[in-house]
Amino acid sequence: MSHSLPDQASPPRTRRRGRRILAVLLGLALLAVGAMGGFVLYLNNRISHIAVDDTLLPPDAAQGNDNADPADEESEPLVESPGTNYLIIGSDARPGDAGRSDVIILGHVTEKRDKVYLIHFPRDLYVDIPGRGKDKINAAYAYGGGALLAKTLQNLTHVKIDHAAKIDFNGFQRMTDAVGGVRVYAEEASKESGFTIQKGWNNLNGEQALQFVRERYQLKEGDISRGRRQMAFVKALMVKTLSPGVVLNPVKLTSFINAATDNAVVSKGLTGKFLRSEAIAMRHLRGDDIVFITAPFSGYGTAPNGGAIDILDQPRMESLALALQDDKVEEYLADK
User: Which end of the chain is more exposed for a tag (fewer CB within 10 A), N or C?
Assistant: First the structure.
């Protein structure tokens, strides 16, 4: 008697059920890919539609001309730095504060894209402003917007500013809420409206972060201390934004991008394509690769008009300028 082998094939009903399950899974996968593709296109579209303002940089820089405007007799010769230099302006648009630039940062990205140096220029730093004589650096923005502020910084550093961006403080608040708040280190305690900042680590929402970066009257060094708070906040926001909990979360990332693009204006060269290429080039950066510096000052004084000022440390400023020109800011920091 012959014995037939067991049939290894599944019954037709089981095979059909398996094919249906496979089809459903494949469909879900295609929907996921389509949704992610649409999400990426959406982000690209948002980045590409950031408002552009050519007046954020002097005409020579905005037009891509390496030479200073010959008509401007007070422009200093510029050095082509190996790195890339950004002017970042934070504007506090509270009632009665029109024209203020409360945050002035010169960002220097090294040629290798392995370090980012963010140099904070205190708003009361007393410097030469082209065509206006000596005044607080904050006045440069009030007199001539981003272009005059950029020209003032270029005269101090002798390096060309390649790109510029301005964001108002409401944007900082919205971006903070978009990422679910930030954890910031405070060097000094202070009592704010409705809450207290303790010395050490603080978890802040958007409204609290806004009060944190605005405070100066309770701090030992006034505007200098406030500048350090602002740098601590910027780093905290950058670290939180680059965390997997935000980068891999479409809802949070979309909210952050919306907040940034709704409250920012940039110079002409900061296109979506350029920003994406820079982000890819700097994808290996970590928190320790982002270094904050306060522009050198030697003490405090009083301007001829009676206003309180921060006195520029000219020798150290010249050393910092050379470091920027040679893309060797780490050597400047080592000599401090």
Answer: N
